[in-house]
Design a protein that fits this description.
Strand content: 15-25%
Largest sheet: 8 strands, mixed
Distance between the termini: 69 Å
Structural class: alpha+beta
Radius of gyration: 31 Å
Helix content: 25-40%
Number of strands: 50
Shape: globular
Length: 1407
């Protein structure tokens, strides 16, 4: 029997013994499980370092390396384990983070470097970054460049760090590569020999040319690389001063190794060796049947064609980015799946005289490699299509996806937003189609796409090859793409364009051929024939361009309610791309033919310019611990000195080592206990409706389903809520948002539980839904009594004394928390009614109390504990509670443990976000810009329950002044009731929304007066001793110092503005803008009773300390800081103190870890406990001078002295909201950012940011800087990138009430390539906080820096102002946040947008 026949018939010979090696160990893969992913299998094995962050290949937390032996070569690549079908790795070696190093056997250099460079905060994303970098090093014969590293990490998301320390960690890749190669026994190559004789120590290897890496800048220089003080200034000339002319510690990439300390585990690790058994193994064809699906792996094209004939419904799976998403999120079921990875005919690449012919199963990464070779070796005029493809592939998904996704898969899915299909069409590519028993047929790419996701393939046919033609002389090809985010994002609009030019006898240049293809403007990728015809045969001049743009408006017509929305923007993008192509062709032709000249003004050349992003760099300035500041000390001596200090030293996160190795345990990593059941939510599909019926009969019939539990099964109260019990745990008669819980289905497996939940049938009677603030205001839908008012002075009388009065409306969108670890709870019933809750929560006491409430138990029967969180940002303060309660109900009834883990899309739909705000304002001011009066009404979208919305609005009311003194204020809060899932706490807790509104009216004041916004800001700053509008007197006001420091660090605002203006004068379509903003953030819970904390400190007889407190570690370094306080108080080294977990049976009644106050409060509580212990130990210290701590403790123990103490702290002299002193103190900061904006698309780059932050006397500068940088990037994302899209009146193409942006595929947080190219952070020195003596005069740092990300928003607006000025549109304009590419492009109104945006003002002159 031949292979084709046996595969089609499902020959059992192919079903035996599928194997894979995992971390060097042979595994026989389980049979009958074609539907599961590699990630699911790894976690079943207990390899939980590989995380489930999204399930769609968009976050990188599940990254692993796979190795295979192909054609006599060893291949290494990173992949997303959450997408990889289990059987896709048959015959391969899978390496996970556990396989390269651990804290017992030793850390791998990649792991060690990331830990020492402070590159891990919450740690959930960390194993994915480790494995991405590890795979990059293993896959390259030469060390990667910094650009390679940044592009390689684009598929990994981090919400905590702001990425800069991760990049710093990996900048020593040459060293890592060489160290990696020394342990690499694969025989696969792997890096050049180390050129230094010291084994590539922390200072780094010399780059080619002999220069060392400067420890102060991270740049090559000749300063001696740490052997002498460095005199080379940092980038831009900042040198080694903090902007105040004071000497400080300057920390750059090289410093992280010296100052982070050695890894605790130094035994060298060994590389996983590629198994000898896999070398030379011929991969057999596979046919692995199972109850859900059969997995086929044919090894010839004939076998695949036979399978397609036998099973026309068979889906061919390459990267699984289409089928995997359909199965997971759309409940699709496919009985037959086939992998083309081992079919030689589909994996070939052949160069002919006219084209590159690529097999359909060739991965995008391998295509990139081949294209690079051809572009490097060929003449530029021949490789135009290849160069354009390379540029487009650079931004196509992440590396992990490109490593497995095939060109054929990308084509046959027929996606209308495929990045590559427009180039195939424009280039004139042809597709070869094969079928059993028939000759191959060829189809032009332009004819292949028939309708939405329907292509010119019959069910029995297969796309076998793509022919990509060479270009000819004077033939120009260009690719275009605009997405919400530059890296790893699907396109809003993309295009491929080609023109072949010829010189006529008259001497002018005309186009003989033009092909224009667009994606994202129709249900399929389309050509623009009318625009092309307008260009062909006509001189390449402005008149021709105008005719083509007008014709394009007839080619590209999008219905107002078209899926995706943004109709005006998408049509404007198409026109902008055509204009850019016209200019690009003209410039290239001019370069080749000097007789041809650009037929447009010289400044228009900027339309065709590409932004070449250099590698990102950063500098950090802070005071040296315990001594006067120093400059340029040799770093090896500096490190030793600093390590002598416990408090004030840049110790790395206590859990860093176990985070980089994947050993850190999160809630869903806990080993499954005996009898564990899995729960899945049954959720509402309507935003507002009556429940008519709920039928669980089909769900109950699913094998392994145990039962359904709803409101009728709640033993205690079904009403829950953190303040008011105003929401139902399980809905009874009515639902008030999409995603509201109706109940849970419980089963023996998660898959069965989810299958059962999907079969619960609910019928509804729809009711009117209120989705937005505007809807709520129109309907009068508010939480009555929950919006407060603050007044000071006499606003009504003040207007008469104002030289100017303005009014306006400001809007700022919500924000998804996007913690990398989705919510998860494990509820374990015990004896005598005990219940243990292990929850990913910021509020263990809230979980304890509410679970007890729902179960009808006293609180002392419920224990809640948590080891750590994979990020929280406020989102797990209250909205984790319903998850625990939902799992507790079946656990209580069944007396079995129940686990409830949310998928990313469930988490985003159901657990709430940062509140969207709308504000109306009226502001009066003097002729100089001094603000005299403010009338402000703020409206927040609270969602379908109150949650913490009252307190969030209260904080907004007391932060509406930002950092500005205003004598007469009336500010009113309105809390809107809507049919969104209840919105909740998010870093800043309402403060940032109010502050950005303030900056919006400051911007309007500046434009009204014609003054620089920074001058207006500085004129209105608070001064020491001023009173706020709510009556608090400012003590230790540092806003002016931070402002001055940030501006001096930036090299002076005037000089920077002049440079930007000079750039703008020569560039019509790329504009730079600068903006600086201050921040003032109050520290304390505004609810007074929450400002208390407890801690428990045990000293053991060996002299070590176990510490427990009520705070939760979620990446912010709380445990590290608290341990530093304890170690310093007891006179111990930091490693003598250990914190195991947070638990309600150790420290009761703890406030949530929130409000940025946890280090202050829990550090003070620990200090109180240590004070008690020191008092008890003092007699023994006096009796035994010079004796080691262990001996002192032993002596005390022998005399029956209590070596355990409970500490307590209550923040003194505060009033809570409504009093004159709601805050213990304020944190201050300032930031100046500069951007470069592409005015034709709305794309932008952040060139540089200088930040100054007041953190008092820092407990740990490394952690504080990490919080500043991470907060800034998160704030930038909120203001400039992240947009929540709901099914509402503005988005009719989304199902009513549904959150469209509920995963990394649609919701875009910043990536590694969105951060500032130059990021400089200075911690204010000599600014101790008098209010926090117990924590060494330090200040909070979690929330205050976030608002500084708004400097990017206002810098972008400055760039838009510059563009509008050239279009004769001067003066102030309103721009809501976030500043998405759509808003930015449409604000840069010009002739290209005018035909599509009726609201845009007309502009004069040329484009």
């Amino acid at each position: 029997m031949d292979e084709a026949t046996s595969s089609a018939a499902g020959d059992k010979r192919h079903a035996s013994d599928p194997i894979a090696y995992i971390n060097g160990k042979l595994h026989k893969l389980p049979l009958g499980r074609a539907e599961i992913t590699l990630l699911a299998y790894l976690r079943e094995l207990g390899l939980t370092g590989t995380k489930l962050g999204c399930g769609e290949g968009g976050c990188g937390a599940c990254t692993v390396m796979v190795s295979s032996w192909e054609d006599g070569q060893l291949w290494h690549c990173s992949i997303n384990a959450c997408l990889a079908p289990l059987y896709s790795v048959e015959g391969m070696h899978v390496v996970t983070v556990e396989g390269i190093g651990n804290t017992r056997a030793g850390l791998h250099p990649v792991q060690e470097r990331l830990a020492r460079a402070h590159g891990s905060q919450c740690g959930f994303c960390t194993p994915g970054f480790v494995m991405s970098m590890y795979a990059l090093l293993r896959s390259r014969p030469q060390p990667p460049s910094e650009q390679d590293i940044e592009e390689n990490l684009a598929g990994n998301l981090c919400r905590c760090t702001g990425y800069r320390p991760i990049l710093d960690a990996f900048k020593g890749a040459p060293c890592l590569a060489n160290r990696s190669a020394r342990g690499n026994a694969d025989g696969a190559g792997g890096g050049a020999a180390c050129v230094s004789g010291d084994g590539c120590k922390a200072g780094g290897c010399p780059p080619r040319g002999g220069n060392m890496v400067c420890p102060s800048t991270g740049l090559p220089c000749g300063c001696g690389a740490g052997t002498a003080p460095c005199t080379r200034p940092g980038p831009g000339g900042a040198g080694e001063a903090d902007g105040e002319g004071e000497a400080v510690v300057v920390s750059s990439s090289a410093d992280k190794l010296a100052m982070g300390g050695s890894a605790a585990y130094t035994r060298p690790s060994a590389e996983p060796i590629f198994p000898a058994a896999l070398r030379g193994r011929t991969p057999p064809p596979l046919c692995l049947p199972g109850p859900a699906a059969t997995w086929h792996r044919p090894t010839t094209l004939a076998a695949l064609l036979a399978l397609k004939r036998a099973h026309p419904e068979l889906r061919i799976v390459g990267g699984n980015t289409e089928v995997g998403i359909e199965v997971k999120f759309k409940a699709a079921r496919y009985r037959h799946l086939a992998a083309p990875s081992h079919i030689p005919e589909l994996n070939r690449m052949e160069v002919t005289d006219t084209a590159l012919v690529v097999g359909a199963a060739v991965t995008l990464s391998r295509l990139q490699t081949r294209l690079r070779e051809l572009v490097a070796a060929g003449a530029p005029h021949e490789t135009g299509v290849f160069a354009a493809l390379l540029e487009q592939l650079r931004y196509f998904a992440g590396v992990q996806i490109r490593n497995v996704a095939t060109i054929g898969g990308n084509i046959v899915t027929g996606s209308p937003i495929s990045d590559i299909n427009p180039l195939y069409m424009a280039a004139g590519s042809t597709f070869t189609i094969a079928a059993e028993g028939a000759p191959d047929r060829k189809v032009a790419a332009a004819d292949f796409f028939l309708a939405y996701r329907r292509v010119a393939l019959e069910l029995h046919e297969v796309l076998s090859a793509v022919s990509i033609p060479f270009t000819r002389r004077h033939e120009y090809v260009r690719e275009f793409k605009q997405a919400h985010r530059r890296d790893d994002d699907i396109a809003i609009v993309n295009a491929g364009m080609r023109a072949r030019m010829r010189r006529t006898l008259a001497g002018d240049w005309k186009a003989d051929e033009v092909a224009l293809a667009f994606g994202g403007v129709a249900p399929i990728t389309v050509m623009a024939p009318q625009a092309a015809a307008a260009l062909v045969g006509r001189p390449w001049v402005e008149e021709t361009l105008r005719a083509a743009v007008a014709a394009l408006a007839r080619d590209i017509v999008i219905a107002p309610d078209a899926p995706g929305g943004m109709v005006e923007y998408r049509r404007s993008l198409a026109a902008s791309f055509l204009f850019r192509f016209f200019v690009d062709v003209a410039l290239r032709l001019e370069a080749e033919e000097p007789s041809f000249k650009l037929p447009l003004p010289p400044s228009f050349a900027s339309a065709a310019a590409r932004f070449e992003r250099p590698p990102a760099r950063g500098l950090q300035y802070y005071a040296r611990a315990g001594q006067d500041a120093v400059v340029g000390a040799p770093h090896r001596h500096l490190a030793a000195d600093i390590q002598d200090a416990v408090v004030g030293a840049p110790h790395r996160h206590l859990a860093a080592d176990i985070q980089v190795t994947g050993e850190a345990m999160y809630t869903d990593d806990m080993p499954h206990v005996a009898g564990l059941l899995h729960a899945a939510l049954v959720k509402s599909a309507r935003p507002h409706a009556r429940i008519l019926s709920l039928d669980t009969s089909l769900a109950q019939q699913v094998p392994r389903v145990v039962g359904f539990f709803g409101a009728g099964d709640v033993p205690g109260s079904n009403m829950i809520g953190p303040v008011l019990h105003d929401e139902e745990l399980f809905a009874t008669r009515q639902v008030t948002c999409v995603g509201q819980m109706l109940g849970v289905v419980v089963a023996e497996s998660e898959a069965a539980a989810r299958d059962g939940a999907a079969l619960v049938a609910v019928t509804y009677a729809d009711l009117p839904a209120i989705m937005s603030i505007d809807d709520a205001v129109a309907a009068g839908s508010f939480y009555e009594g929950q919006g407060h008012t603050i007044e000071c002075g006499n606003v009504d009388d003040a207007w008469a004394g104002c030289a100017h009065v303005i009014d306006g409306t400001a809007r700022v969108g919500g924000q998804e928390h996007f913690y990398l670890e989705p919510n998860c709870s494990l509820v374990v019933p015990g004896e005598a009614g005990e219940v243990t809750v292990i929850s990913s929560t910021q509020g263990p006491a809230k979980n304890q109390n509410m679970v007890a409430h729902v179960l009808g138990l006293p609180a002392h029967k419920v224990f809640c504990k948590i080891k750590r969180l994979g990020g929280g940002f406020g989102g797990k303060e209250t909205r984790s509670v319903p998850i625990s309660c939902a799992a507790a109900v079946p656990a209580w009834h069944l007396r079995r443990p129940v686990r409830l883990a949310l998928d990313r899309d469930e988490d985003m739909q159901t657990t709430g976000h940062r509140h969207a705000f709308m504000a109306t304002y009226k502001v009066g001011f003097t002729a100089e810009g001094k603000v005299l009066a403010l009338q402000l009404d703020m409206y927040s979208n609270a969602g379908n329950s109150l949650d913490l919305s009252t307190s969030i609005m209260d904080r907004a009311l007391v932060h509406c002044d930002c950092a500005y003194k205003i004598t007469n204020v009336r500010v009113v809060g309105h809390v809107c009731r809507t049919n969104q899932a209840s919105n909740t706490a998010f870093r800043g807790f309402g403060g940032p929304q109010a502050m950005i509104v303030a900056e919006m009216w400051v911007d309007q004041i500046a434009r009204t007066l014609g003054r620089p916004p920074e001058a207006v800001r500085e004129l209105n700053f608070y001064r020491e001793g001023d009173s706020t509008h709510f009556g608090q007197v400012l003590e230790g006001c540092q806003v002016q110092r931070c402002w001055d420091l940030a501006l001096r660090s930036a090299g002076g605002l005037a000089q920077r503005r002049a440079a930007a203006a000079a750039f703008n004068a020569g560039s019509r379509f790329r504009k730079r803008g600068l903006a600086a903003v201050p921040t003032k953030f109050g520290i304390s819970f505004t609810t007074k009773f929450l400002n208390q904390a407890g801690a428990l400190v045990h000293i053991y007889t060996d002299g070590t300390v176990l510490l427990t407190h009520g705070g939760v570690e979620m990446g912010q370094g709380l445990h590290t800081k608290v341990a530093q306080v304890a170690a310093a108080a007891l006179g111990l080294p930091l490693d003598a103190v250990y914190i195991a977990e947070t638990a309600t049976d150790k420290v009761p009644n703890a406030s949530p870890t929130a409000a940025s106050a946890s280090s202050d409060m829990y550090g003070a509580a620990v200090a109180d406990a240590c004070r008690q212990l020191n008092e008890r130990l003092e007699p023994f210290r006096a009796r035994l001078p010079g004796t080691a701590f262990k001996e002192i403790v032993s002596a005390a123990y022998l005399e029956r002295v209590d070596l355990s103490a409970h500490g307590f702290y209550a923040t003194p002299n505060i009033t809570g909201f409504g009093g004159a002193k709601p805050f213990n103190y304020f944190c201050y900061g300032a930031a100046l950012s500069e951007v470069e904006l592409d005015t034709l698309t709305g794309d932008w780059h952040l060139l540089r940011t200088d930040l100054a932050m007041d953190v008092g006397d820092s407990l740990n500068p490394a952690i504080d800087i990490g919080q500043v940088e991470g907060g800034f990037v998160q704030g930038m994302g909120w203001c400039c990138l992240e947009e929540l899209v709901w099914g509402d009146a503005a988005h009719p193409w989304v199902a009513p009430g549904t959150l469209h942006t509920r995963g990394p595929g649609t919701y875009k947080i910043p990536t590694v390539n969105d951060i500032p190219l130059d990021l400089r952070v200075t911690l204010l020195r000599d600014a101790p906080c008098a209010k926090t003596p117990l924590v060494h005069s330090s200040k909070a740092v979690g929330e205050p820096p976030l608002f500084l990300g708004a400097s990017v928003f206002f810098a972008l607006k400055e760039a838009v102002y510059a563009a509008r000025a050239e279009a004769s549109l001067p003066g102030w304009f309103r721009m809501d946040a976030p500043a998405t590419p759509e808003r930015l492009r449409m604000a840069c109104a010009d002739e290209l947008t005018a035909p599509f945006a009726s609201s845009a003002a007309s502009c004069k002159g040329s484009f």
